Amino acid sequence: MEYNYGNLIKVERMRRNMKQSVLARGICSISYLSKIENNQTTPSEEVLELIFEKLNINVPVYFDFSQQVDKVREEIQSILREAVLTRRDEDRRKQIEKYISNPVVNQSKELYIMLLITLARFDLMPGGKGRYLNELGWLEDQLDRDNKIRYLLMQSLTHFQSNDKESSLQLLEQLNEQLPTSNIPDWEIADMRYIMGGLYYKSTDYLQAIENVKFALGYFKDNFYVERIIECHLIIGLSYKRRKRYSESLSHYERATKVTSATDLKYYNGMLYNNMGEIYSLLGNQEKALEYFLESLSYKSDPKSKLYSVLSLIEVYAEQEDSNGVIKWLGNGYEIIGNHEGLEEFHHHFEVYRNCYQEHDKLKLISSLKKAVQYFESFDDYLYTNKYALWLARELRENGKYKLSTEYYEKSIAIMSRWD
Q1: CB 297 within 8 A of CB 271
Q2: How far apart are CA 319 and CA 404, in angstroms?
Q3: DSSP conformational letter for 78
Q4: Rounded Cα distance, 103 and 272, in Å
Q5: Rounded to an integer, what distance in angstroms lies between the CA atom of residue 143 and that of residue 23?
Q6: For residues 237 and 245, what is the distance between their CA atoms, to the nearest angstrom?
Q7: CA within 20 to 30 Å of 194's CA: 247, 325, 362, 407, which one?
Q8: Can you tell me the mean pLDDT for 332-339?
Q9: Is the pTM of this model over 0.85?
Q10: CA neighbours within 13 Å on the CB side: how many for 166?
Q11: Which CATH class is domain 5-70?
Q12: Alpha-carbon span 219 to 121, nearest angstrom
């Protein structure tokens, strides 16, 4: 067993924002402490005990825990695997955090790095704070090839979340090259491919999104992880929709609804039926679209989810030039918004339709369209940026604002060329 004392000391010191000079004072030289932290020397038991006492670390020095390493490794792997594959991560997160003070983990370099990787992975799930990914970065030079691959994916996701999409995509390219020759277990590769597919989808590379998520879908189907199967069908369906391959998109939504109908996962039906309604709307079957949008609404309880269905209904009635239908659902939409916060996007949507169909005020409509384009463009929502930019260009042209109209047409063309 390779001892972990250097990594443990380095991480604990940096967690406390303590300088090497402060920790080394009265114990050893700064250069000697640096060698300990970089695993370049094996310190004496006396030096280790003094350092541990200063850092308030409780680990038996050079006590042989090697016989327990395999058992603890299997426990940590099992907890992460269950959390990832079943989407039941909250209780599992608490189970994993208990290993932070485990003496076997703190003594073994392999287990310690494995625990940091696992904690960082939990940090990427809802409710995570990103703390452990930073700590993992302090030990990047200690990672083996497979752990570097895991770290690459977490970095890619973090870059994307901080809006550095170029760096995120560069790391995804490295992952595509390295993942096929890794020794990472199949279940974990499936989850990694799913995450990669989601990142490619959000970056509008829909072909890569489909390829990666289909890979994940194969594993989840073979091992009957139903919730993950539904999630995969959703992303593939959305990607096909963006590529205007509507029949393939619809087929994946239909496969997902077959899974929900055979399980207790009916809460996915709200999202699935809404997406199916959008496909039928794009195919020109507005009656079928309305049927699915109304059905989707019956499965939803969260205000934001309900508002997506309401917006879809408004869009269908607008397509049918049914002002009464638009106004009716605008009223429902504003009622759902009520005093809820974090729903700014729907204010932009609804203001556009209210000024067009209820107020019949062209100047207010143009103003609300400009605000909508600016808002959705700031969030890289190309679908609605394009929709409202085209709408605005037409309104400006009708009002004789030809130069400004051309600017918005060009914005729309740039977006559509990116999709192509």
Answers
A1: no
A2: 25
A3: H
A4: 47
A5: 25
A6: 9
A7: 247
A8: 94
A9: no
A10: 0
A11: mainly alpha
A12: 20
Rounded CA-CA distance 188/195 in Å is 11
Within 13 A of 291's CA, how many CA atoms are on the CB side? 6
| Single-letter amino acid code for the residue at 337 | I
Three-state DSSP state, 404: helix
Q: Is 3 helix (H, G, I), strand (E, B) or coil?
A: strand
Residue 93 near residue 126 (C-beta atoms within 8 A): no
* CA 384 – CA 369 distance, rounded (Å): 11
Percentages (nearest 5) of helix, strand, coil residues in the chain: 80, 0, 20
DSSP SS3 for 267:
helix
d(CA 33, CA 42): 11
- What pLDDT score was predicted for residue 60? 77
Confirm if 8 and 103 have CB atoms less than 8 A apart: no
Sketch the domain layout of the chain as residue ranges.
Answer: 5-70, 361-420
Length of the chain counted residue by residue: 420
5, amino acid identity: Y
Q: Tell me which residue of 43, 46, 37 sits closest to 18, measured CA to CA.
A: 37
120 and 140 Cβ atoms separated by less than 8 Å = no
Half-sphere exposure of 259 (CA within 13 A, CB side): 23
Longest dimension (CA), the chain: 85
CB proximity list for 413: less than 8 A, separation 6 or greater = none
Instruction: Please give the structure tokens belonging to residue 127.
Output: 């409710």
- Tell me the angle at which helices 109-123 and 5-15 cross, rounded to the nearest 10 degrees: 40
- How far is 368 from 358, CA to CA, in rounded Å? 14
Quick: pLDDT tens for 22-46. Answer: 999 999 999 999 999 998 998 888 9
Angle value at C-alpha 325, between 319 and 331, nearest 5 degrees: 120
DSSP of 337-378: HTT-SS-HHHHHHHHHHIIIIIS--HHHHHHHHHHHHHHHHH
Name the β-bridge partners of 3: 108
Cβ count near 255 (within 10 Å): 18
pLDDT tens for 265-324 read 998 999 999 999 999 999 999 999 999 999 999 999 999 999 999 999 999 999 999 999
What is the SS3 assignment for 351?
helix
DSSP-assigned letter for residue 161: H
CA atoms within 13 A on the CB side of 358: 14
41/28 Cα distance (integer angstroms): 13
